């Protein structure tokens, strides 16, 4: 049956309420009753749209990823040189992670305790790997990074980017003496990622 406008609005109300509750209480302490109350809906209504808290979080994770993919694609659509577009894409990723940190914390927590959710999140985050793999393949067409496996390299770069943001945004950084600004974070990530891709075996 095709969803009605009222049904779509109710479903979105639960998603918006879940974001607010997760921000306020954290994912592990977020109860379905709290989410229903925040949305101004009944628990019975909740189960018309979602099977569980994990199912609702999966929708938030998909939304997080969809917005992220649109953001990081924009600098490349604008026709910037690839290396400059990469810098701007990293900046947009970093800012998106800052804005949506409570959801990411919830996603990581859920992936550690729920096997089904962990599998779904693994598939969702692979979108970012595919995006970076396209970047690597485009560079290879211009003679850079010969012999590098695009998907595997993209997995490594994606993991670096995500974990850096996890450590420095969600957990206040490593115990080193540096005051990390956005510009320093972005420049560091960009330098590492650019040098990981833009190299040749022949110096000429």
How much of the sequence lies in strands comes to under 5%
Radius of gyration over C-alpha positions, nearest whole angstrom:
20 Å
Q: Report the average pLDDT across residues.
A: 91
CATH superfamily of the largest domain: Tetracycline Repressor, domain 2
Counting DSSP H or I runs of 4 or more residues, the number of helices is 9
Low-confidence stretches: none
Intertermini distance: 62 Å
State the oligomer.
single chain
Order of SSEs, N→C?
Answer: HHHHHHHHH
Number of strands: 0
Q: Give the helix/strand class.
A: mainly alpha
The CATH architecture of the largest domain comes to Orthogonal Bundle
- CATH classification class of the largest domain: Mainly Alpha
Outline the biggest β-sheet: none
Helicity, as a percent range: over 70%
CATH topology (level 3) name of the largest domain? Tetracycline Repressor, domain 2
Coarse morphology: elongated
């Amino acid at each position: 049956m095709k969803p009605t406008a009222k049904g779509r609005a109710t479903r979105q109300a639960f998603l918006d309420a879940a974001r607010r509750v997760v921000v306020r209480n954290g994912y592990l302490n977020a109860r379905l009753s709290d989410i229903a109350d925040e949305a101004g809906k009944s628990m019975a209504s909740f189960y018309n749209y979602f099977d569980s808290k994990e199912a609702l979080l999966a929708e938030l994770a998909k939304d997080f990823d969809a917005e992220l993919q649109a953001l990081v694609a924009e600098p490349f659509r604008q026709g910037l040189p690839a290396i400059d577009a990469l810098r701007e894409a990293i900046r947009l990723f970093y800012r998106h992670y800052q804005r949506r940190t409570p959801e990411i914390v919830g996603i990581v927590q859920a992936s550690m305790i729920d096997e089904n959710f962990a599998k779904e999140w693994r598939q969702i985050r692979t979108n970012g790997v595919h995006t970076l793999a396209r970047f690597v393949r485009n560079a290879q067409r211009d003679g850079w990074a010969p012999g590098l496996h695009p998907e595997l390299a993209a997995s490594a770069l994606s993991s670096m980017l995500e974990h850096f943001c996890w450590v420095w945004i969600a957990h206040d950084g490593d115990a080193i003496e540096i005051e990390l600004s956005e510009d320093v974070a972005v420049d560091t990530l960009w330098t590492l990622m650019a040098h990981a891709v833009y190299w040749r075996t022949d110096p000429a």
